[in-house]
Amino acid sequence: VAVGQRPTVLSFPGIVYARRTWSRTVPALVEAGFRALSIDMPGCGHSEPTPHVLDEDETTSFLEAFLDTLVLDQVDVVGHSLGGAIATVFAINRPQRVRKLALVAAAVGPDVSPTLRVLALQVARPLLRPIALRPVFGLLASAWEEEILEREVADAERWLSDQAARTYFWNVLRAGLSLRGVRPERLLLERLPKLKMPVLIAWGKKDQVLYFSNLEKIRARLPDARYVIYAEAGHMLPYEVAGQFSRDLIEFLK
CA 5, CA 7: separation in Å to the nearest integer? Predict the structure, then answer.
């Protein structure tokens, strides 16, 4: 949590730790005067596992209770990957509480890596064990800074060494994906026109997790959104193009 004078920015990561995904974004937001909050959703990162994967109503209720606890009527919301889907669900269900919405390589379209689909299968559970993580991380970015990669892998190894966390991770994947792709009941693409607040869509052309082809499908549903494309980046925009991404985000939020 960091405090500034501008509107509050609430950011959600994918199925990782918030403090890692936004480690370069939050300082830039604070320097620009925003109050920046980044949280791990229940079951992820440092949050305690839940008995089941939250559905849409439960996700909305949890986030509304979070804002109520901090006495926040309205926030700017930023979501990366699965966090983008969470941000979208909240913005659709509670539009009065979202001033602006930024979706960063967000899981709202249908075009998903076959590797990610395979990870959702029962037979792929061994791939979530620490020893197999490095090849998985290789898909996430077009290039990693070695120091950051080592820290990411070590942190993920620590988290996934816990059986409950590993099971929850797999259950989250299984809830949203099958071998065919995104489960129809979880696909948000056709609901995007319900977003009436200003929206920023950011994507890397080399994304090997949620393919760049999603962007044009999103643009067809949200023609008035602002689009930012990073030609050399993969899925981890807040790391790979940290400086430019932060500047683009701040410009949008201002």
Answer: 7
Measured distance CA(116)–CA(12) in Å, rounded:
20
**Cβ atoms of residues 84 and 105 within 8 Å:** yes
Distance CA 107, CA 82 (A): 5
Residue with tokens 């607040």: 197
Lookup: tokens for 161: 């060494």
In total, the chain counts a number of residues equal to 254
CA angle 93, 98, 100 (to 5 degrees): 130
Look up residue 15 and give its two tokens.
Answer: 């199925």
80-120 pLDDT, tens digit per residue, is: 999 999 999 999 999 999 999 999 999 999 999 887 777 66
By the 8 A CB rule, do 105 and 78 touch?
A: no
CA distance 161 to 48: 15
CA distances to 93, 158, 205 from 61, in Å:
10, 30, 34
